[in-house]
Amino acid sequence: MQGTVRIVGAGLLGASIGHALTARGVDVALDDTSPSQLRLAVDYGAGRHATDSDDPSLVVVAVPPDVTADVIQRELARYPRAVVTDVASVKLEPLRTLRERGVDLTHYIGSHPLAGRERGGAISARADIFVGRPWVVCRDEETPSADLALVEGLALDLGATPLEMSPEDHDRAVALVSHVPQLIASLLAGRFVDAPDGSLRLAGQGVRDTTRIAASAPELWVQILGANAAPVVDVLDLLAADLTAVADALRAPDAPGSRRAVADTIRRGNDGVERLPGKHGQNRRFEQVVVMVDDTPGQLGRLFGELGELGVNVEDLRLEHSPGAQFGLAEISVVPSAVRRAVDGLESRGWKIASTTND
């Protein structure tokens, strides 16, 4: 990445992009309507304060959806020689607004990194949140090839994988894989508010995984869901029909066809999970080895070290620890060919294997 990159919006995504580019030696100029947010991002090393003399080659707009179009229009007018992109999670609505205003969009390319965290703000920013994640780029037939190369180069420099999609396809896709899951997680977690304390003490890793994103900021999601309402409603209507069908089956579980309806629902979920991309964006199936880990300092590090000595690569990790227990469970995902080596090697070193996928 050559020249100065101007980032408007020093929140989670903007500051994270700033950290990643600064680490690569890129001159990053930060701007934000919130002076305190801007100072915090600069203090944490995401870039420097923008100045009136800056002449950026690339402008990244990382602001809330309700002002994305306004800021894009302003930046295009202020820096006519720069390429302007945005990282909003909805692509069609800002584009429609800009077209209706008659804005020259020759040097604008919408984009969206599929990355983030439950907590926002500059204090939560990290340079590595884009690594291995898809980064959608919405080009059209008028997009100059050099401009496209600049935006895709940004994604590649940050370790992401650029994917070209139309704004319409993008918004339908994120409705299914991002926006509706947020609503489902929030609705389920909302059931916990009035639940007895005794019930919540039974919660395990499964419910924590299912509701993790329910901790997201309501203010931002009101904007995102409002801007992508139609595709989200389409998915919600289908889910509502599915839920009604399962509920009807469970109202009379011994009626003919009821058990099959429930089984087909679970089986279809199995099939859907199989289609999710695995590590490095490939549909790979991993096996799980669950190891009991004593709740004492250094044990998890020792486990990783010994797996490395055994030549076993950890593809994914999930930890579960029950309140009051003196041990935790480390669910380690490995390629199928490494399961036996991992189990035999760890047991020989004194680790207790709680289970494997094939148990």
Automatic annotation (TrEMBL):
InterPro entries: 6-PGluconate_DH-like_C_sf (IPR008927), ACT-like_dom_sf (IPR045865), ACT_dom (IPR002912), NAD(P)-bd_dom_sf (IPR036291), PDH_C (IPR046825), PDH_N (IPR046826), Preph/Arog_dehydrog (IPR050812), Prephen_DH (IPR003099). The keyword RNA-binding does not apply. Pathway: Amino-acid biosynthesis; L-tyrosine biosynthesis; (4-hydroxyphenyl)pyruvate from prephenate (NAD(+) route): step 1/1. Gene3D superfamilies: 6-phosphogluconate dehydrogenase C-terminal like domain (1.10.3660.10), NAD(P)-binding Rossmann-like Domain (3.40.50.720). Its EC number is 1.3.1.12. PROSITE patterns: ACT, PDH_ADH. Belongs to the prephenate/arogenate dehydrogenase family. This is Prephenate dehydrogenase. It comes from Microbacterium psychrotolerans.
